[in-house]
Write a structure and sequence with these properties.
Elements: H1 17-32, H2 54-57, H3 60-77, H4 82-97, H5 103-107, H6 131-141, E1 153-157, H7 163-180, E2 185-191, H8 198-233, H9 246-262, H10 273-284, E3 289-296, H11 298-305, H12 308-315, E4 323-331, H13 342-348, E5 351-355, H14 360-374, H15 384-394, H16 399-415, H17 423-443, H18 447-461, E6 467-468, H19 469-483, H20 490-502, E7 506-512, E8 518-524, H21 528-536, H22 548-556
Parallel strand pairs: 1-4, 1-5, 2-3, 3-4
Antiparallel strand pairs: 6-8, 7-8
Helix pairs in contact: 6-7, 8-9, 8-10, 14-15, 14-16, 15-16, 16-17, 17-21, 18-19, 18-20
């Protein structure tokens, strides 16, 4: 038997010398050629089929040296690092294919150019159909630019008739003109629906003027310190300054620093009211100036804390030495002055300006004026602005409502990624705003009013129509017992129903029953499910649902 024909006992051919030489040549060649990704050994196996784990075959040092040799060979041949290539591929996949939460929302074309123009806080550069009222305010306030005290002004009008916007517009023009002619004239705005007590009003005004006084003192100190530095180097630096020596400048600096330290800001609570008033008086009279105090929603201040604030403010001019104060009050209630002291009423209402409601055509002009700035070109269909104006005109010509309607319609169109704002978006916005208004009104009702309203809801849900006051009162008493709440008299419950009717939540009509007298027939004017959900969200009424089976049983019987 020859060497080439030899076989092993198990039938497999034995390695011949020629085969061994060929294998050695192949291994040497493989060490010098560049590998392709498909030819690479998997990371968990060596080229001999051994495990890559050094502990598996006890060849730690030998395996590390082999790995280093393979990596250096790969670097010389230009082959990429396999592990780095795989991670790069994974990262590339993430970066190219993943879509974030907001990517789809941002993919559509925006509809708005400047949405802020449609918000109530925006003061436009032009107010259509309010030229007469603006000119009337300007003719009254122009005396402030002459250093004189303007007459006090009361501005009346329903919500959304342009009262606040017009007053802010005139105030901005007044301050701009005062800076132009270097006349000390300032306007301070306070919303009395938020700042609704005498303490808060005086504290807010005092802190504003203290802040301004600090700024003025800081400017003077910087100027005097610069002057003192120059005067120490050159005695002629004090010429025409009113100071004879550097010591006089230093004395003035010390005086201003002392004034600044004495101006203590008023905390929002904790001081006696007379101390707050005294601090405000000293702060406003520190410099020569004419101040116009604009009190928006002034009727809320009178309703909450009486007319003491208005009395003190209107009488200050007789005591001030350097400054002068004028009051501009803005109110939705034309009759709020009926509750004022006659002396306050006479001094406060020196000038009165009434803002009438807008009609549909005027609202259309206002909306068009704002829409030109607020929206991209050609995104509003031709029926959008007339429809918004018509809806708002139905509610006593409320421009604020019209602007909210137009803005909400645009937002709904943008959320649906529509190409423009259509009539359907306006109608959807109308329903949304109405529901939001109802939710807010119901949420802020007193607890007793909520119980009365829930009584009406239970009656309607159980099929009772033309509900009368007696039926509401019977359910109301049961609910109060369930909630351990005080039970009001039937007359007081009737008053609460009238208040709900005034808010537009229920519709209460007085009907005659002939010899049985008169009663109120009550029905809901708001969506029943949404209203019930708002009531049940009140923690104080959390157990009110437990009374419903009782009410159901009552009607079944």
């Amino acid at each position: 038997m020859t060497e080439d024909d030899s076989h092993s006992d198990d039938g497999e051919p034995a390695d011949t010398a020629s085969e061994q030489r060929r294998r050695a040549g192949d291994e040497e060649t493989s060490n010098t050629r560049s590998d392709t990704p498909s030819d690479r050994t998997p990371p968990d196996q060596t080229s001999e089929g051994r495990s890559a784990d050094p502990a598996a075959d006890g060849s730690t040092e030998t395996g590390d040296a082999a790995d280093e040799s393979e990596l250096s060979t790969a670097r010389r041949s230009g082959a990429p690092n396999p592990s780095r290539a795989l991670s790069d591929v994974a990262l590339d996949d993430d970066g190219d294919d993943s879509r974030g939460l907001f990517d789809d929302l941002l993919s559509g074309e925006p509809i708005f150019e400047n949405k802020e123009v449609l918000r109530p806080s925006y003061t436009p550069h032009e107010l259509p159909h309010r030229t007469d009222q603006i000119n009337q305010m300007a003719t009254i306030l122009v005396s402030a630019l002459r250093g004189e005290t303007p007459s006090n002004i009361l501005i009346y009008g329903k919500t959304g008739t342009g009262k606040t916007a017009s007053a802010k517009f005139v105030s901005q023009e007044l301050e701009r003109t005062s800076q132009k002619y270097d006349v000390p004239c300032e306007v301070e705005y306070i919303n009395c629906e938020v700042t609704d007590t005498q303490y808060r009003v005086l504290a807010q005004l005092a802190n504003k003027f203290i802040e301004k006084n600090h700024a003025v003192i800081d400017d003077r100190l910087r100027s005097l310190e610069t002057l003192a530095g120059r005067a120490r180097e050159d005695e002629n630096a004090l010429a025409d300054t009113g100071f004879d020596a550097v010591g006089d400048v230093d004395a003035r600096i010390s005086e201003l620093e002392r004034d600044r330290e004495e101006m203590e800001s008023v905390p929002m609570t904790g001081w006696p009211t007379d101390r707050v008033y005294s601090t405000f008086f000293d702060a406003v009279d520190y410099n020569e100036r004419v101040v116009v105090i604009m009190l928006d929603e002034i009727d809320k201040l009178v309703e909450k804390s009486g007319d003491d604030t208005l009395y003190n403010l209107s009488r200050m001019n007789s005591e001030l030495d350097n400054s002068r104060i004028s009051i501009m009050g803005i109110s939705n209630d034309l009759k709020f002055t009926d509750f004022l002291d006659p002396r306050v009423k006479s001094s406060l209402g020196e000038e009165e300006i009434v803002f009438p409601p807008y009609d549909a055509n005027q609202l259309r002009d206002i909306l068009q004026h704002r829409a030109d700035v607020a929206f991209k070109s050609h995104v509003l269909s031709e029926h959008v602005i007339p429809l918004c104006a018509a809806f708002a005109a139905q509610e006593h010509g409320d421009a604020r409502r019209a602007l909210d309607l137009l803005r909400t319609a645009g937002e709904l169109a943008e959320r649906s990624q529509a190409d423009g704002v259509a009539e359907t978006h306006v109608r959807q916005a109308q329903d949304k705003i109405e529901l939001d208004r109802v939710v807010e009104v119901v949420r802020t009702l007193p607890t007793q009013s909520k119980i009365v309203l829930f009584s009406i809801i239970l009656l309607e849900k159980n099929g009772v129509h033309n509900i009368n006051t007696g039926e509401v009162f019977n359910i109301y008493k049961r609910l109060c017992e369930e909630l351990d709440a005080d039970i009001l008299t039937q007359r007081r419950v009737t008053d609460l129903i009238s208040e709900l009717d005034m808010l537009g939540i229920v519709n209460a009509v007085v009907v005659s029953k002939g010899r049985y007298g008169r009663t109120k027939e009550i029905s809901l004017s708001v969506p029943i499910d949404e209203t019930e959900a708002v009531l049940l969200s009140d923690s104080r009424l959390g157990d009110i649902e437990n009374a419903q089976p009782f009410v159901q049983a009552r009607f079944d019987n």
